[in-house]
Amino acid sequence: MNQKQFSEAVSSVTVRDTFWDPVMEVTRTQMIPYQWKALNDELPDIEPSHCIRNFKVAAGLIEAEFDGRVFQDSDVAKWIEAASYSLKWHPDETLEKEIDDTVELIIQSQQPDGYIGTYYSINGLEKRWTNIMRHHELYCAGHMLEAAVAYYHVTGKDKLLQAMIRFVDYIDSVFGPEEGKIHAYPGHEVIEMALMRLYEITKEEKHFRLARYFIDERGKQPCYFENEIETYHNEYPWKDSFFQFHYYQAGAPVREMKEAVGHAVRAVYLYSGMADVARETLDDSLYEACQAMWDSIVERRMYITGSIGASAYGEAFTIDYDLPGDLVYGETCASVGMVFFAHRMLKLSQRGEYADIMERLLYNGTISGMALDGKSFFYVNPLEVYPKKNEEVQAFRHVKVERQKWFACACCPPNLARLVESVGSYIYTQREKQLFINLFIGSEAEVFYGENAAHITLETGYPWNGKVKLIMECESGQEWDVALHLPDWCREFELYVDGESAHYMQSEGYLYLRQCWRGRHEISFNMKMEVREVCSNPKVRDNIGKVAVMRGPVVYCLEEEDNGADLHCVEIPSHAQFEETYRPDLLGGVVTIKSIGRKVMLEEASPLYLEDGWERYEEKDLLWIPYYSWANRKAGEMVVWVRKR
Amino acid sequence: MNQKQFSEAVSSVTVRDTFWDPVMEVTRTQMIPYQWKALNDELPDIEPSHCIRNFKVAAGLIEAEFDGRVFQDSDVAKWIEAASYSLKWHPDETLEKEIDDTVELIIQSQQPDGYIGTYYSINGLEKRWTNIMRHHELYCAGHMLEAAVAYYHVTGKDKLLQAMIRFVDYIDSVFGPEEGKIHAYPGHEVIEMALMRLYEITKEEKHFRLARYFIDERGKQPCYFENEIETYHNEYPWKDSFFQFHYYQAGAPVREMKEAVGHAVRAVYLYSGMADVARETLDDSLYEACQAMWDSIVERRMYITGSIGASAYGEAFTIDYDLPGDLVYGETCASVGMVFFAHRMLKLSQRGEYADIMERLLYNGTISGMALDGKSFFYVNPLEVYPKKNEEVQAFRHVKVERQKWFACACCPPNLARLVESVGSYIYTQREKQLFINLFIGSEAEVFYGENAAHITLETGYPWNGKVKLIMECESGQEWDVALHLPDWCREFELYVDGESAHYMQSEGYLYLRQCWRGRHEISFNMKMEVREVCSNPKVRDNIGKVAVMRGPVVYCLEEEDNGADLHCVEIPSHAQFEETYRPDLLGGVVTIKSIGRKVMLEEASPLYLEDGWERYEEKDLLWIPYYSWANRKAGEMVVWVRKR
C-alpha cells in the first residue's frame, strides 16, 4: 500500500450512524460556532481569548499588545481543522467563508521569511527560538499545518497549505543537524505528525526529514533545553519535580525511553509522530520504541475509560498501576492524542489491540469530555467524584463535577471537535488487497483496489448491540480480504456472508474473509453483547477488591441521580444479575443496566471508630449508565469502580 | 480547686515507667543536645538555623542580617522549654548553664520597650505589627513565655520570666479593645495558652485579660487581616483557597465557628487557649465553642492514631470524614497540640472521653513522630505508605517513608520533646477532694488535700498489659475520691482495694473509689486487654470495607519488613484469631500480634483489565507491630487499614 491510498480511503468515508451522528451534529452546531465567538471575543460571560485580535495585530491591521497564552494561535488552528472536517459532511457557505477570512488574516500576518506566530510577530521576531522549551512556536506551527492539510483535503483550497509550506521551509532553515542550525526539537510536540501529513501530500523529502529530525534529535544529552534555560535565563518550572526534563519527553532519546512519562498530551503526540515516521522509514528501532511506549501505557498506565495521566501536577503520567479514579487528570486532549497514537499503531501493524484501545477511547474517555448538548466540557475526566470533596479539598479541586462552558486554556474542546468531526477516518484501513473494518460505525465508503472501486455500506446499532451489516457493491470481481475487527470484549459471535456461515481466518484480533468479491455482497457480523464485570490487575492499588461494569466497549458508572448519595457504600456481588434496557428517552438514548447490590447503612450519630461487626446492609437496586453520559443531569456523586462483596 | 493546686500536683510528679522512661531518655540524650547544636549552627550536614546567631545580632554582639524563617526564635523557646522539663527528672549542670547563657542572650536582645524578637529587632522595629497575620511575632512571644514559665517552675529561676513579663506588658500596651491600640489577634496562636500559664503564676488580671482579648477579638468581621493585607500590601497566600481566612481561624468569631478548619496546629492551639480561658471565666458560650470544636475533630476529623489534618495544602483540616491514610498530613505538632487541647478539656470537665483521646495520641500519633533512637523525625505521620509512590508521585511526596534528621522548619521535634519531657503532668488531675488518674504511666506523685499530703506510687506494664497498681501512703485519714480512668477500649476489668473487690461508682469514663484513706492502701486495677478489630464510621470513604487492629490504646500496622510488599493485597477475616507475644528484643520491646490473613496473588504478565473471577489467594501469616514503632527498620510499605474479607 502507499500513503496516498490511506488518504483517499479516509476522504471517501461518510458517517451515517445512530450513535455518532448526534455527537457530530452538536459539535458542528454548538461547539464550533461557540468557539468561533470565543476566538473573536464575542462571548459576554467569558474572558476574551484575543485569538483573532492577536492575528489582526500581527497583520498590522490594528495596534495592540499580544494577549492570551503564548500558544493562543493554536486555538485558531484547531478550530479551522474541526470546522473543515464538518464541511465535508455538512457543506456550509457561511462557515467556509469564516474559514477563508481567517486564512486570509493568517496569511496577512505571515512574515517575509515565512514565519507565522502572533506572539513573536507582535513582541519581536528577534526573540524567536529563545524559549523553544516553553513557548510553543513549533506547537502552534504544527496545529496550523494540521489545519491547512485538513482544509486542503476537504475543500481543495491550498492557500493556507502554501503559506504553511513556506513556514515549514523557514523552520527547516532554522532547525536541523547542519552547522549553524539550532539542534533542538519542540517543547510541545504535534508538528511531527503534521509534517508527516504534509509529506503525504507533497512527497517532499525535506518535509519528512524535518519530522524525523525532530524525533531523532529529541532527548539527546546534554539536553538542549537545559542549555537554553541557562543561555536565555528562562524559567524552569519542573526544577523540583520528580520527572525533570522527562516532562517534555526530553530526558532520554526516544529509542531509550523506558516508560511513558511526563506531560501526557505531549507524550502521546510524540509517540504518534514517531509511529508516522516509523511507518515511512520501516525503522525497527523506532517501531520498538513506539511499542514500548504503547505497552507502558496500555498495560500499566491507562484508565479503564482509556484516559491517561494520573496526576494533575504536570498533567502527567505517574508510575505503573497508579490509577486513582478521584485524583485523576485524564485530560480530554490526552484521550484524543491517544486515539491518534492507536490509529497510527494500527497503520503500522494491523493488530486488533490497537483498534480495541481506539474503541475504548471513542466510547468512553474522549466523548466524556463534552456534554450531550455540546455546550459544556470537561478538561479532566474523573472516574469518581464526591462533590463536597471536589469543591473543598485542595488536592481534588482540579476535578470538576460539572462540565464548564469554556476554559482559559481552551485546548480540549476544539481537540475533541476535530476528532469527532473526523471520526469516519478511523473506521477503515486499507492495505493492498485488504480492507480492514476497525470500528463499527455506520458509514459509507468508496474503496479502491487496483483499478477498481467498491462501495461499502456499514450498518449497525453499535455500541448498543453487536449487530453489524456490511454491504459491498463491487465493480468487478477480484480476490481480496475483508477483515473485521473482533473486539477484545467479544466472546461469542456469528459471521455470515450472503446468508451463509462464513469461512474466516482469525489472526491478531481480526477475522479475515478472503474471496472474490463481485457485485453485491452482504456480510453479517453478530457479536453477543453481554454485561460483564471487569477487574483491574491487582497491582492497581486503588481498584483492589473492586469491579467495573462494561457492556460491549462501553464502561458504565453509577450516578447519585439514579442511585442516591454515598456511592462508596455500595457493593455488588461477583456474579450479579444484570437487566439491560434501551432507553431512547434517557441521555440521548442509551442502554441502561439494572442490578441488585447492597449498601452499608449509615447511622447519623455513630462514632468515628467502632468495633468491627457493626455494619448493617440494605438491598439496593442499582441503575448503571454509560460513563460518557455522566454529569448531564444534576451534579452529584459518580463512581465507576464499585466494591465487590 | 484552684489553679495553684494544678501546678503543684503537676510539678510533684516523677515518671518511672517502662514505656515512657526510654522515650524521655532518648529525647533528653539525643534530641535535646542535637537541637542545641542545630540552634548554634554546629551541625555540618544541616543548613544553619541561625537561631542563636540571630539573637546575637539582635543583642548587638555581632553584625549580620537576620536569617532563617520569620518564626526562627520559637525554636530556641521550645528548646528551653523541653530542656527545662528534662532538668526536673535529670539534673544536668551543663545543660542548665546552656539555658542560663541562652536566657542571658535573649535578655540582652530585649528592646528598651520590652520587645523580644530578632526578626524586627534586626530588620527595623518600626515595621513591627505590620504583618500580624503571617509574621509570627505573637507566636514567638507565646513560645518564649511557655519556656519562661517552664524554666521558672523547674528551677525557680525567674530571669526569663521577668523579662517576658516586661514583654507581655509591652504587648498589652499595643493590643486591646481600647482606642489607639491594635484590635487584632495572633496569626499563629499559642500565646493564649502561654498567657494563662503566666496568669497561674502572677495572678495578674491583665495577663488573663490579654488572653481573653485575643480569643474574643478573633474572627470579628470585617476581618482585621483582610484590612492589614490592604494597608501594608502584604501577600495573602490563601486568596484562591477554599478556606480563606479560616486558615488562620479568622473567618468567624470563635463562638460562631462551626467546624475545626484551617491550619491544624493553629486551630488546636487556639482551642487549647479557649479552654484555658473558659475554665477561668466559667463562660458557657466559650465552653460550648470548645466542645463544638472538640466534637468536630473527635467525631469527624481525626485519624485512628489521633493525628489530625488530612491535607498537606495548608497543613489543614479538610471536610468531615475525609481521612485518607496516604494523602494525610497528620503533623506531629498538631498531635502535640491535640494533647494540649484534650488535657485542657479534661481540666474543664473530668470526662473520660478527653483522657481517651489524650491516650490515643500519646501511644500513637505523637511518638510516631520520633525514631526509637531519638535521632530522626516525622513531620507528617501517614497511615499508609508505598515508597515508590511517595517518592515519585507529586501529590504524595510530602509523605516521607523514612524519618528525617532535621527540618528547615524544625517545629515538630522540639514540640514533641516538650510534650515527652512533661508527660508526667498529664497523668493526674486533682479537684478538691478528688484525685483523677487519667493515664496509666508508672510514676510517683505527692498529692495535697487540705492540709495533708499523700504519696502515690503508680506501677503498671501499660500499654502492654492492663494491670495497674496504685499504692497510696496517706498522712492522715480523710474521705476523698480516687477516680480511675476507664479507657474506652476496655470491656472487662477487676478492681480491688487492699485485696478486696472494690465498691466503685462509674461515671463519665471514670471509676470513683470513695473512702477514708489513711496509712497505706493498695488499689489494683486489672483491665482485660485483648486484640480487637476496629472499623471506621462508613462515612470515612477511604476506610470503607477495611479494619484496623488495636490492642489496648495501641494502634497496630503491617510493615513490609515483616509481611512482604504489596500490602494492599492483604485481607483479614472479620473474626480473626490473634496471637500476642511480648518481644523484648524488637523495636525497644513491643507486643507483636500474629494473625492469619490471605493475600491476592500477583502474576507478572497479567493484563491491566480482566474479567472478574481471576483472583487467586494465598494464605498469609501476618505480623502486626505498634504503629508508633514503624519505620525503625528498613524503608518499605506500611499500612494501618486492611481490607476485610
Automatic annotation (TrEMBL), chains A, B:
Pfam families: Beta-AFase-like_GH127_cat (PF07944), Glyco_hydro127C (PF20737), Glyco_hydro127M (PF20736). Residues 435-529 form the Non-reducing end beta-L-arabinofuranosidase-like GH127 middle domain. Residues 531-643 form the Non-reducing end beta-L-arabinofuranosidase-like GH127 C-terminal domain. InterPro entries: 6-hairpin_glycosidase_sf (IPR008928), Beta-AFase-like (IPR049174), Beta-AFase-like_GH127_C (IPR049049), Beta-AFase-like_GH127_cat (IPR012878), Beta-AFase-like_GH127_middle (IPR049046). Gene3D superfamilies: 1.50.10.20. GO terms for biological process: carbohydrate metabolic process. Residues 12-424 form the Non-reducing end beta-L-arabinofuranosidase-like GH127 catalytic domain. This is DUF1680 family protein.
